[in-house]
Amino acid sequence: MEHWDFVGRAAELSRLQRVATSETERGLILSGVAGIGKSRLLREAVSALPADRWAVFRASANIASSGLPFGGLAQILPADPPAGLSPAGLLRWAVDALHAAADGRPIVLAVDDIHLLDAPSAALAHLLVREDATLLGTLRTSEPVPPPISALWTEGLVSHAELTPLSLDESRALLATLVGSPVEAGSAQRLSRLGGGNPLLLRELVMAALSGGELVQAYGFWRWTGRLTLAPSLAELVDTRIGRLTGGVRDVLELVSFGEPIGLALLLRVADPAAVEEAEERGLIRVVEDGRRRNVRLGHPLYGEVVRRRCPVTRARRLLATLADLVENVGARRRDDLLRVAVWRLDSGTAQDSGLLFGAATQAFGKFDMVLARRLAAAARDAGAGYPAIELLATVLLFLDEPRRALAVLEEAPERDARYIAARATVEFFGLGDPRAADTLAAVELTDPADLARVRALESFIRLQLNHLPQARALAAAVAGEPAAEPPARALAQCVTAFLTAVAGGFDRGREMLTVIEAETRSWRRDTPTLQFAFQMTEGTLVSVSQDLPGIDRILAAEFADLAQAGGFGFGSGWVSLLQGSANWLRGRTDDALRAVEQACAALSAARLYDGNAHYARTKVAALRGDVALATASLEIAESAGEGILALYYPLREQALAWTHACAGEMTAAVRVLSDAVARTRADGFHAHEMILLYDLVRFGRTDLAAERMSELGGTVGGRATPLFVRHARAGADGDGEELFSIAREFAVLGYQLYAAEAAAGAVRIFRTARDTRALAASTLLADVLARCGVLRTPALRAVQPSLTVRERQVAELAAGGVRSREIADRLFLSPRTVENHLQRVYTKLGVSGRNELAPALRLLPQ
After folding, report:
1. Among the four 223, 267, 529, 679, which has the fewest Cβ within 10 Å?
2. Residue range 738-747: average pLDDT?
3. Which DSSP string do the residues of 351-415 spell out, in sequence order?
4. pTM of the full predicted structure?
């Protein structure tokens, strides 16, 4: 990790290189805080300049040389200046020496930390710019700059720009290069935000996390535990950036460290206004606009980590109590004030209101900040908030993959009522994977109809997971028809019904039901937080089986996706990654899809319950890419978990198994697996799954087994892709190349690039067999679609992607480029007859009639 690849900064790098090679611009100086990446950016920019065209002189100023005449540029000047020269003469000698070394080439002077130049060196840089040299430099923000340098941009000779922090995407890319492999999305997001876009600080964070064992690897992805190891080198680096503090500035920094974001008006009530101004001027804090408010935040997220750890306990408790009093006195009007005040009260030892703590714990759970929710729920329980706090704490522990601790917490419940019974069964089933939880619930006898409805709703949901469909459906209907059923029980039963409606193909009705459930969120989230799990599972299933790309995109753009990735919520992060994988493979972006499903494997590895589903998704994506080894390995991992309590998801397993066979060329086995799965889903009424499996048969070339049944299902299964699936099956059965060509274009417009490619491949195959001139247009469409995709090696595509030998490929590419046979023969040291023989074999393999059709046909072949 001592040297990492240069990532990001594409615009800044391009600008520096443009200025360096410009005939009109004379220079650019970039300023920024320490560690922001100025030096590396400058080095990358000038290292790309050809030495035969530009004379590049690189220097790095430092404190040690700042008091020596020409010390800052001693690295590029001759060692022995002539004796007896005046200061002006020395300056002229230095300029002439550099021009002589340039030997007529344009001069590019690159100076790192230009603010540390001694006066003669600064004057030399100034004079060189006036004599048409180009100056590229970096300086540290807020440091004094030598007058000759500052005059360069005040007089308009060079430009001056501020180097901003890395974006989140750039930080994530840097993280991957620092550790040598991808970082799980949620971990990358949290580490990137903590690094604040500063490459040096991010590097120190990663080194500390690695040395402290807080970064662990799973399925090729690094995952951060969330614990921050503040290594001495990291603390010293942050201390250096903070600098010496007066008492007033220290108070400001501590208040903001414990209370950010804090309103500027509130901060000025308890802190010295002059100290606030000084802290802002030094970059220790920053004032940001938030609607009509002005909030104060730290200049860098790590300042808070260091300041909080260095603050004495007694002063920290006093500051936290002060912040809580301050916000409560103005009415705690903002949405997050309840949560913030509760945390301050808890940490200051002044928390006495159990209602405040429980409300804050619920709010933290709603944000999927599981670590904070656990702290607050435990505090609420200890403060006497009663069973609701116990149940919430147990739920949080379940979501943190600590089911046995969750059961131990539930044992503290004073009564064994319906809520306790339901909570315990939830942990036993979803945490420990015990299918007997359903029978335990079925055996419960309660006289209160509302309590019974709560238990029966949960039993319905568990029966659904076990694929006990008649029982699940009947129980959900009974709860829905029970007038005494409370909103949480009714909502859970509606989730079961919506799920069954969706997998039966009633997508519109399923969405309507989910809309109703979501609209009543407030009536069930506080009472039954685990219901969020059921809702997200149902919504994800609906958009997946309907292959609703816009619907998936809406979910991924919503607040839940961001919160799930950032809050340490493993199931939520894995669920989001699986949806990202679905969207990407439908769009043909198999590289992105593979990364997404592998992130899901990493995120779900701790829970194990849904780990198999993630590996089935990984299996399918690997098979689409033609990677037999990865598909087989992923399938073995998924199969090792067995179907277990997640029998509901058997279509995913059967599809993954079929695609693994197909990837290995075992088409008979693949068709047999799909045919059996079609029969099973038809019997279960899973018509949406049935349609997808039937369409896989079409994609495997067995329209004879699928077309008729797909036509029957066309009026039952909704979704905008379904009509195209049915048409594809009919066109394949009829050998209608023109219809397949039309379907391919429609798929492409809707974003289904994978299906577009396979439909176009079908058209190409039919047209080539018939020697139809339309093969050229179909090949061109297929090539255009594949250009937007990642690696794709499905059976339909392999049929039009024959293997050429190296020599055949060389000859074909030259011929496609317009090179005549005799010239090809000369270039490749072949005889003209041999070239023609190669071309005839290529024409036969590709199904083309001549050179005019070679180019688009070659574009179809894997590189």
Report:
1. 679
2. 96
3. ---HHHHHHHHHHHHHTT-HHHHHHHHHHHHHTT--HHHHHHHHHHHHHTT-HHHHHHHHTT-S-
4. 0.72
